[in-house]
């Protein structure tokens, strides 16, 4: 009987961990629907904190908002944003901010990022 309870506990713990690790919601707003970019790989998406940090000319192609559970680190949010950026053809992200909701709810945090396409032209 004890093994049965231990197994159920372990399975519940594993499932809970999997659910928490995938609890990132994202929304994407394309900024320029006139151009369509070829999808890229999330592993190739670079991160920047400021527009001035980007070494080449770039185009802003989408706004990406993420929401994650309070106890999660920002890695899950950034990985979700990289996936969305790659899907719209971006090759970099400018992280604008991470914040907790203003209503004092400390169960989630919100990230705001800009997906960009860095051009080889105009690169120093």
Automatic annotation (TrEMBL):
Entries under PROSITE patterns matching the protein: PROKAR_LIPOPROTEIN
Protein name listed in UniProt: Lipoprotein
